[in-house]
Amino acid sequence: MTTHGGFEPVFCTIVPPHVLDKLSQAEDPALAGPARRTLQRDAYERTQRRLTTVIGASAVASVADGKPQRTVHDARHGTDLPGHKVRGEGDKPGKDATVNRAYAGLGATFELLLTAYQRDSIDGNGLPLDATVHYDRDYNNAFWNGEQMVFGDGDGEIFLDFTIPIDVIGHELVHGVTQYTANLTYFGQPGALNESVSDVFGALIKQYTLGQTATEADWLIGAGLLAPRVTGVALRSMKEPGTAYDDDVLGKDPQPATMDDFVRTGRDNGGVHINSGIPNHAFYLAATALGGHAWERAGQVWYDVLTGGELKEKAMFTDFATLTVKAARERFGDGEELDAVSKAWEQVGVRTL
Questions:
Q1: What is the DSSP string of 90-128?
Q2: pTM check: above 0.85
Q3: Strands, E, within the chain: which ranges?
Q4: Positions marked catalytic
Q5: Is 81 exposed, middle or buried (0-12, 13-18, 19+ CB in 10 A)?
Q6: Residue 85: which of 110, 65, 102 has the closest Cα?
Q7: Contact, 272 vs 22, CB < 8 A?
Q8: For the purposes of burial, counting CB atoms within 10 Å of the CB of 215, is it exposed (0-12), middle (13-18) or buried (19 or more)?
Q9: Other beta carbons less than 10 A from residue 278's beta carbon
Q10: Confidence of residue 1 (pLDDT cuts 50, 70, 90)
């Protein structure tokens, strides 16, 4: 397998380490315990991902026929992957709602990529989509490990089942699209762009599934994931970064909306889940300025940049923004699309060249 810039899959989780770090310090062991175990499991899986990258993963046969090839496995609260196969492509829904949601989410992601962007699965060549549910016990995360999706059931106290928000499924699978295309380095601004691209297309997958326009959408990532006791609505807000939650246990959403509040940190791979709020907000501004279905124009521009071959692995926000302006002009001319994209980056304080 090769990609633009070289094949280097990374381990990407939906819940940022800084959230789990905060939760692991809770006085209540029912809250701290699952968070600590999740952090330990994530560290292990991250190491396994690096080893697999060095040794080389087994090849996966892809068939570009425009049809999804989905397989859902059940880990039965263990950690061996992929687990026991419980549903294959074309099988009827079973009694396990988690399995059914995972299957549907894989399909929704495949459908948007194919219908809107003529991309056959995440690698563009019909890659089979595999997922594992019921991973570990009280596991507070979902991740893409370079080869498949994995979902925890949550602890029921802070996080619910990670298959509930369809944008979480889409977010993680789009890490795979980035892996097979621009292969953005998972650190600092390139890493924040990596995270933002997944948020953008995760949001678009939800909007496509619901038939929503940019104006109708909530622009929340992970809505429905937080348990009732949590003071918050989601993991992140693209509309208003920094407002998704403000909880006595989780703390306050740290995402900035503009470069004025850019966070410099060595944690979370240089703040990849934090500073992604800035390009996220730029996309929201561009999409809502244009109106209609966000995947058709703003989404097309972002997709063109991600897959066009010019986006470098270590691209900074300015590099990405500049390419979106170029892509908007090349695809739509000097019209409202170019104006909306240019103004969006200006509003978040990212310079274009």
A1: TPPP-S-HHHHHHHHHHHHHHHHHHHHH---STTSS---
A2: yes
A3: 12-13, 70-74, 84-88, 129-133, 142-144, 149-151, 220-221, 236-237, 246-247, 251-252
A4: 172, 273
A5: middle
A6: 102
A7: no
A8: exposed
A9: 28
A10: very low
